[in-house]
Each structure stands twice: as structure tokens, then as C-alpha cells.
Design brief:
By secondary structure, the chain is an alpha/beta fold. The protein has one domain (2-185): 2-enoyl-CoA Hydratase, Chain A, domain 1 (Alpha-Beta Complex), CATH 3.90.226. It has twelve helices and eight strands. It has a five-stranded parallel sheet with strand order 1-2-4-6-8, with helices on both faces. Helix 2 packs parallel to helix 4 (57-75).
């Protein structure tokens, strides 16, 4: 079993350096059972918004491509993956957990899990959104994505953001990986590929990303909301 620990400032916020680290570690795991968890008392509090605030169009394009590639690497990873969500998992942090095969969250009621992009005025890149929609029950799309709330573990479980709760999510995730990791490698990988086909990225989606998503993330209104987020 391989373990990837999200570790960095601002509750393991996902900046370029941390995303590249995760992407490289996933590639190096070569199909072994993979555990993803966070350092300290958080899983990941989301994207590094300070980096977002400082970005221009080219750097934001690179940032999004790395984010999508990192999420896709986990989403399509051929071996079993489990997220031990040991604390806050917000926005991009929640997405990293979502795309794992098994998501086990802490029972700590203070932890918050959710996708608050819409509350910040942000639009999902099309390829990223396709993976997110596949990992959340259809009946909860409106509450999770458009409501843009941050939920305690029990509510997050009800909404399908996590599969189970545990006082020790790392131990519970490790036990699950040991069990499913005993399945034949080829059978697990082929079965997973069948239920998680490659996400298409059409010319229309690319144009939408370039013309709508990128400028939106750099708009004055979004920057104002993000600055307000830091003041809370």
C-alpha cells in the first residue's frame, strides 16, 4: 500500500507544488492500493486562493490543467484508492477525496466537507465537473453543487460526499484497502475502467473553458469574494 499525505500551509491548500506532488506520487504508485489523507487536523481546505489571486490568464490555465490532471489521475487510477478524510475537505480538497474509490471521513462534528465554488462565484472547468458529477448521487447535485454548502460529516454522508464515517478514518481506509487489494489486479483495473470511462474533452468544452471559465476566475467580483473569504 502507498500513502499520499496532503501537507502544506493553510490547512493543506492545493497550490501548484502540492498538486504536482500528488500527481507524481499517484503515477509512481503503479497500481498499488493507494491511501490519500491529510497532514494534521485537515484533509485539504481547498485550492490555494492566494495563488489564484496572483494569477494571470496563462498561469491560471496551467493551474487548472494541473488540477484536472491530478484529479483525473486519481479518478482513473487502476488500483484501489481510499481517502481518509481526517478533517476539513473543501472545494478542490473535497474533489480529491470524491474521486477516490472509497471515502471515509472523521466523525469529528467540527469538520466541514463540501463544494463551495458557486458561493465564491466560480465555475467548474468542464472536464473536472464531469468527474465530480459522476461521484455524487444525481439526486444530490442541486444541494451539493448549487447550494454550495459546507457540511458536517453526518450530513456529508447523507449527501453521498463520503461513503462512511470512522473515529479513525486512516485505520478504516487501510482496512478497506487491504480487503479489496486482495482482489486480482487485472480484474479490479478492468472493472474500474468499465465504470469510469475516459472523460471526453470536446472542442466546445475547450472553448467554454478558455472563453468563460478562465476569465471568470480572474474577474474583479470573484477576487472580491475571495478577499472577503480571507477576512472571515
Amino acid at each position: 500500500m502507498r500513502t499520499i499525505t496532503l501537507s502544506g500551509p493553510a490547512k493543506n491548500a492545493l497550490g501548484t507544488q502540492l498538486m504536482q506532488y500528488v500527481h507524481d506520487k499517484v503515477a509512481a504508485a503503479s497500481g498499488e492500493p493507494l491511501l490519500l489523507t491529510g497532514d494534521g487536523d485537515a484533509f485539504s481546505a481547498g485550492l490555494n486562493l492566494k495563488e489564484v489571486l496572483q494569477a494571470d490568464i496563462p498561469s491560471m490555465r496551467d493551474f487548472h490543467h494541473l488540477l484536472e490532471d491530478t484529479v483525473a489521475a486519481l479518478y482513473h487510477y487502476p488500483g484501489p484508492t481510499a481517502a481518509a478524510i481526517n478533517g476539513h475537505a473543501i472545494a478542490g480538497g473535497a474533489i480529491l477525496g470524491l474521486v477516490c474509490d472509497r471515502r471515509i471521513a472523521t466523525t469529528n462534528p467540527r469538520a466541514r466537507i463540501g463544494l463551495n465554488e458557486v458561493a465564491l462565484g466560480l465555475q467548474f472547468p468542464p472536464r473536472l465537473l464531469a468527474m465530480v458529477l459522476d461521484c455524487i448521487p444525481r439526486r444530490h447535485h442541486t444541494e451539493v453543487l448549487l447550494g454550495a454548502g459546507l457540511f458536517g460529516p453526518e450530513h456529508a454522508h447523507t449527501l453521498g460526499l463520503v461513503d462512511a464515517l470512522a473515529d479513525d478514518p486512516v485505520a478504516a481506509a487501510t482496512e478497506w484497502l487491504a480487503r479489496v487489494g486482495a482482489h486480482p489486479d487485472g480484474a479490479y483495473a478492468s472493472g474500474k475502467a468499465q465504470i469510469r470511462p475516459q472523460v471526453p474533452y470536446t472542442d466546445e468544452q475547450k472553448a467554454y473553458f478558455e472563453d468563460v471559465v478562465l476569465p471568470g476566475w480572474l474577474s474583479d467580483s470573484v477576487k472580491t469574494r475571495i478577499a472577503g473569504f480571507f477576512k472571515k
